[in-house]
Automatic annotation (TrEMBL):
All residue ranges annotated as the HTH rpiR-type domain in the record: 8-84
UniProt keyword list: DNA-binding, Transcription, Transcription regulation
Gene this chain is encoded by: ybbH
InterPro entries in UniProt: Homeodomain-like_sf (IPR009057), HTH_RpiR (IPR000281), RpiR-like (IPR047640), RpiR-like_SIS (IPR035472), SIS_dom (IPR001347), SIS_dom_sf (IPR046348), WH-like_DNA-bd_sf (IPR036388)
The keyword Transcription is annotated on this UniProt entry: yes
Protein name (database record): Putative HTH-type transcriptional regulator YbbH
Taxonomic lineage: Bacteria, Pseudomonadati, Pseudomonadota, Alphaproteobacteria, Rhodobacterales
One GO biological process term: carbohydrate derivative metabolic process
GO MF, one example: carbohydrate derivative binding
Length: 295
């Protein structure tokens, strides 16, 4: 079983069943979801020690997701899923060392390779059916709130801007001078929250997802682990890969997935959306916002 198979079967199953597990089994499942590369090389006693649970907890957890026992479960992880363990400061220091040694050509290759891997690994986990289901939820909604803070604020703003060329119900949050919990205060089951955060997870984003579910909203989550605190409670879950040599998570796969999701929304939308987009751009031409071709 390769890394993609592990993600699509075992890890997704653990994520889906997470809330139904006992507290001790949740500790074991969380360790697997966040450290899948350790499973294939660890005995049941070793991984139980890492997760701070008893070995039998891992055996029971493995059986709950359809395996005969831990050894059968462990065999699926022989091909370790690539994860990054270096912290942000360590990566920043590494970048400085690369520059001092005149190895920027190597850094260039690493960055390009990481961007390509992130796209490939992300879309290997996602299928058209999942994207279509999320797109249908968006199109059928009254309002769509797109939440991203920090580096993901720009990703949320960009998605909302693109969507606004044909639709009016999109709002990027947090709004200036506000906070995301206030921004969704009057949202309900007719509304959708698209949310994104990667490790280290932002507290206000996790809290807003909790509030959104309490209010009956549909949550579409993008994050870097099946154990992410925004992935587990979401109805539509997209696990992305955000690894890169730099000291902050890469946004390449998030942007690509959001653009693909928006293309699905347009594809399943009513025909009038085409007229809306045409009207939007015609007005821009009329206002002289574009340089016109004079040839």
């Amino acid at each position: 079983m390769n890394g993609t198979d592990v993600s699509s079967f075992v890890l997704d199953r653990l994520s889906l069943d997470f809330e139904s597990l006992t507290p001790e089994a949740q500790k074991a499942a969380r360790y697997v979801l966040e450290n899948p590369h350790c499973v294939g090389v660890s005995t049941v006693r070793e991984i139980a020690e890492f997760a701070n649970v008893k070995p039998n907890t891992f055996v029971r957890m493995a059986r709950q997701v359809g395996f005969d026992g831990y050894e059968d479960f462990r065999a699926a992880f022989r091909e370790a899923i690539r994860t990054g363990s270096a912290g942000f400061p360590d990566r920043a220091r590494w970048l400085q060392d690369v520059s001092k040694k005149g190895e920027l050509g190597g850094l260039y290759a690493e960055m390009v390779g990481a961007a390509i891997r992130n796209i490939e690994e992300t879309f290997a986990r996602v299928d058209a059916t999942a994207l279509k289901a999320a797109a249908e939820a968006i199109w059928a909604s009254r309002q769509v709130f797109t939440l991203g803070v920090g580096v993901n604020n720009a990703n949320a703003q960009n998605f909302t801007y693109l969507a606004s060329t044909g639709m009016v119900q999109f709002h990027a949050i947090p709004r200036q001078g506000s906070n995301p919990a206030d921004d969704i205060a009057w949202a309900d089951a007719r509304d959708v929250l698209i949310v994104m955060t990667c490790r280290p997870y932002r507290r206000e984003v996790v809290e807003t997802v909790r509030l959104a579910r309490e209010q009956g909203m549909t949550v579409i989550a993008l994050s870097d682990s099946p154990a992410s605190p925004i992935i587990i409670p979401a109805q539509h879950r997209f696990v992305i890969t955000a690894e890169a040599p730099q000291f902050f998570p890469s946004s390449v796969s998030i942007i690509a997935l959001l653009e693909t999701l928006l293309s699905f929304v347009i594809a399943i939308a009513s025909p009038e959306i085409v007229e809306r987009v045409e009207t939007f751009h015609k007005r821009r031409h009329q206002l002289g916002l574009y340089l016109e071709d004079t040839e």
